[in-house]
Amino acid sequence: MKIRTWVAACALTFVALPAFAGEILVSAAASLTNAFKELATQYESAHPGTKVLTTFGASDVVLRQITEGAPADIFASADQKAMDKAVEAKAVDPATRVNFVRNEVVLVVPADNPRGIASLDDLKKSDVTRIALGNPASVPVGRYTQAALEKAGAWDAVKAREILGQNVRQVLSYVERGEVDAGFVFATDAAIMKDKVKVIQTVDTPTPVVYPIALVQRDGRAPEAADFLKFLMSDDGQAVLARYGFAKP
């Protein structure tokens, strides 16, 4: 089955609009989409007159947009490498950097699992020809996946069958639509499609899957951004994140 070409769905959701008073601009990893939309709604309800505008995509792509001038007040990454790049580029205030949630990488297959995949070892079978993962060059889940598979001795087999996604949600969609035999996504992403994809196993990553967040370093940053970041770290904010499967770091 031919992989369908994505345009809007796999591109970064980004509109270069100026920020206005009472607006908090949050740029975040794609895996945070559902949780952050609810967090934004809750914050707006508690702070009448304030709008939380969200942008989601692969962490490296989101960061590139910020460094190229896209307005943002908060950057949330799915791995430390992307945040390290943000610090090096002076795109964020390092004093505000904090780890705020933890996740896991899982091997998933379409719900009907036509190849009968039951473990990482089954990815080496001759009838398994398409395996989706995030592009390690720009997508944190891809970096975690590559490191885990190298540790498990399965990277070469997967590399020979790889279908690269431009963010974790694209990988999830490939699996959900049955366009690949298997894929690697975050556990929280698999949870939102539990009727369409089946989790085969949790993958042991050499580096814990911990997400950092920080305030963007820019003139005109929304003064409310620091308060929104505090809300994310509060018991109420963490409760929302927990409902979407994220754990405390």
How does this structure look, described?
With about 250 residues, the chain is an alpha/beta fold. It has 2 domains: about 1-100 and about 210-245, 3-Layer(aba) Sandwich (D-Maltodextrin-Binding Protein, domain 2); about 105-205, 3-Layer(aba) Sandwich (D-Maltodextrin-Binding Protein, domain 2). The protein has helices at about 35-45, 60-65, 80-90, 140-150, 155-160, 170-175, 185-190, 225-235, 235-245, and strands at about 25-30, 50-55, 75, 100-105, 105-110, 130-135, 160-165, 180-185, 195-205, 210-215. It has a 5-stranded mixed β-sheet with strand order 2-1-3-10-4. Helix 1 (about 35-45) links the parallel strand 1 and strand 2 (about 50-55). Helix 1 packs antiparallel against helix 9 (about 235-245) and helix 2 runs parallel beside helix 3. The chain is elongated. Mean pLDDT is about 95; it is low at about 1-20.
What pattern of helices and strands is seen along the backbone?
Answer: EHEHEHEEEHHEHEHEEHH
Q: How many DSSP helices?
A: 9
Tell me the structural class: alpha/beta
CATH superfamily of the largest domain: Periplasmic binding protein-like II
Stretches where pLDDT falls below 50 for ≥5 residues?
Answer: 1-18
Biggest sheet strand line-up = 2-1-3-10-4
The name CATH uses for the topology of the largest domain is D-Maltodextrin-Binding Protein, domain 2
The count of DSSP E runs of length 2 or more, i.e. the number of strands, is 10
Q: Could you estimate the helical fraction of the residues in percent?
A: 25-40%
| Strand content range | 15-25%
Query: Class of the largest domain, according to the CATH hierarchy?
Result: Alpha Beta
General form? elongated
Q: What's the architecture of the largest domain, going by CATH?
A: 3-Layer(aba) Sandwich
Radius of gyration, whole Å: 18 Å
Rounded mean pLDDT score: 93
Note the main sheet.
Answer: 5 strands, mixed
> What is the count of distinct domains?
2
The end-to-end distance, rounded to whole angstroms, is 39 Å
